[in-house]
Amino acid sequence: MEDCIFCRIARGELPCHKVYEDDKVIAFEDISPVSEGHTLVVPKQHAENLFEISAEDLTAVHLAGQKIVRAIRKALDPVGVAVLQLNGRGVNQIVMHYHVHLIPRAAGGPALPVSDWGAQEGDPEALAGTAGKIAAVM
After folding, report:
1. 99 noted as active-site residue
2. Helices (H) and strands (E) in the chain, counts
3. Structural domains in the chain (count)
4. What is the pLDDT along the chain (138 residues), one digit of tens a residue?
5. Which one is catalytic: 38, 46, 97, 99?
6. Which structural domain range is residue 18 located in?
7. Domain with 61 in it: what CATH number?
8. In the 3-class helix/strand/coil scheme, how is 75-101 assigned residue by residue?
9. pTM of the complete model
């Protein structure tokens, strides 16, 4: 896509703080990091979200993400790393190009907002009903 910022970064038209690149993926530091080491893993081929990305590019992004998260662990020694991927403006996807966030949490650092979403025990009947609806479409 011609005007997509991540496509432009992948093509080398815009600068980034690159940490990894191969023929399918580029990874770089987020310019608005949640924490030190917050890295984006982006397919070079444009796809807006999980609904559109090819299986090949999806695989490449996540295999690269695993390599990068291992490097983050060695370089920064976090107590954990959140892996986040958003699909659509309704969940605050800002750049409409599939990407995965790798967000490390430093020892003694604040909780990551993305990993503290207030999960509560679900109603078993409601869970069964929802599972049935999704499974029926599968």
Report:
1. yes
2. 3, 5
3. 1
4. 789 999 999 999 999 999 999 999 999 999 999 999 999 999 999 999 999 999 999 999 999 999 999 999 999 999 999 999 999 999 999 999 999 999 999 999 988 888 888 888 999 999 999 999 999 999
5. 99
6. 5-137
7. 3.30.428.10
8. HHCCCEEEEECCCCHHHCCCCCCCCEE
9. 0.93
